[in-house]
Amino acid sequence: MAGTVRNLARLSVGWPSNIFVRNNYLNFYRCLYSERSLGLQGYENARLNFRNQFLNVENTFRTKMQEVCSQESSMIFTEDLKSMLHLAQKKPEDIELLVKMITKFNNQNKEMRFGNYVFGPVVMRTFYYLDEPDLALTAFKDPQFEEFFDQLSSHQILLSLLYKHGKYTEMKDVYSIIKNKFTSEKGNPRTTLVLIMAACYKENTPEAFEYAFNIWKEMNQKGNEFMRRAIAFLAGLAIKQNAPHIAIEIISTMRTARFPDTRSLKVLAYTDLKRFTEIVPILRISLENYRTVGPKEVFFQDVVWFQFVH
């Protein structure tokens, strides 16, 4: 066993810096979704374009929009709101004007709007860029914007922003709203569950574990599939909450466990259960696979050393 572990330790050096978690496997921090996947890189590029377009008339535009917002008969057009969303700076007067424009635009008669531009994700990207989690949450929960942010990408951006600021309780509130609004026609909000499981993992309390485990059981009963990363967070939380037997059961529901995170979690869980004979075949298969051509079955370095010292 010790020899097998030493071999795995040599093989796994350097790998953790390139995947899902780094350093201490059960005590890590990393943004769950990249700026590119959230559309933030494209948004920032668009901001540069708008700043160039409004180079000498930016203040004039703001003054005009203030006038439009104060006049009941005036309208906020699609291009007006798009422009302000990409010009807004993190200062009270800009944020106040932006909120007024969003509200007025949303309240306008739908028949009078031009085009089918979906603003929800762009507004959330703006709030993310301006680092305004409370404002984003308030807007999302406001009944007048019930359908304005009714897109999975809006939910994902909002939850990512709340996660970034450690607002885990608020994330659960958002998930509750999403779940209540959810219909089968819209698909399964699996990406939101990754963030919710991550929030529960960070909380690491018995209550958080019960909450997350109940979601998993409900999804399982309905035949809905959990994303691998969501399962990894839940299994990791189970281990931290001294329930390695549950972690094993959760991982066993995956179609394939041939990923470094799930494979390492199985080893940790079996170690906590003192079932070392279950670990040997896992390590042996990985060693045999390492000699073949193709992707290698590796483990996180911390997990391997954890086995070695035990």
Automatic annotation (TrEMBL):
Organism in which the protein naturally occurs: Ooceraea biroi
Q: Which domain of life is it from?
A: Eukaryota
Q: Name one GO molecular function term.
A: RNA binding
Any GO BP: regulation of mRNA processing
Tell me the protein's name. Pentatricopeptide repeat-containing protein
- According to the record, the segments passing through the membrane are none
GO cellular component labels: mitochondrion
